[in-house]
Design brief:
148 residues; alpha+beta
C-alpha cells in the first residue's frame, strides 16, 4: 500500500505537468490592437548605428484588426497629412502590408511600392518591424509599444 501511495505521489505531478504542456500555444505574431511608435533604429552593416526618438509632439499610431491595418502620423513640423489603410498578413516572421487608401503624400509612395515587407520581431507588449533593402540588409526599424 505504501508503495502504491509513493508511486502516485511520484507519477501524478509528472502526468499533470505533461497535461499542462499540451495546451494550444498562443499565436506568436498577434498584432491585434493599437500600437504607438516609440523610436526608430537606423542600421549600418546590419548593426544599429543610431536611434531616432520621437520629439516635439511627433506621434505615430498603428491599429491592427481582423487582417486590416490603419495608421496615422502627426508631425508638427510637417504640413502634410500622413495616414493609410489596407490589409496585412504575417507569414514566417514577415509582416506584409498592402495599403488601399492613404493620404496624398502616402499615395505617391504607394504608387511605387505596392507591398511593404518587414521582418517582424514581437514580444508581449511591443514589436519591431525591420525594413530590409534589396540586398537583404537591415535599413530601418520602427519600434512600437502596445497601447493599453
Amino acid at each position: 500500500m505504501k508503495t502504491l501511495v509513493l508511486i502516485l505521489f511520484v507519477i501524478c505531478p509528472f502526468v499533470l505537468n505533461t497535461q499542462e504542456n499540451k495546451t494550444t500555444p498562443t499565436e506568436p505574431y498577434n498584432l491585434e490592437g493599437v500600437w504607438e511608435l516609440k523610436h526608430q533604429f537606423l542600421y549600418e552593416d546590419n548593426h544599429i548605428s543610431d536611434t531616432i526618438y520621437n520629439q516635439n509632439g511627433y506621434r505615430q499610431v498603428k491599429m491592427y484588426s481582423k487582417g486590416k491595418v490603419m495608421w496615422t502620423r502627426y508631425d508638427p513640423k510637417d504640413n502634410n497629412e500622413w495616414f493609410g489603410y489596407g490589409t496585412y498578413t504575417i507569414k514566417d516572421g514577415i509582416l506584409e502590408e498592402r495599403l488601399e487608401y492613404a493620404s496624398g503624400p502616402m499615395m505617391k509612395i504607394v504608387d511605387t511600392i505596392q507591398v511593404f515587407r518587414f521582418e517582424l520581431i514581437m514580444s508581449k507588449d511591443s514589436y519591431q518591424q525591420i525594413d530590409i533593402d534589396e540586398e537583404g540588409h537591415y535599413s530601418l526599424a520602427e519600434n512600437y509599444d502596445k497601447v493599453k
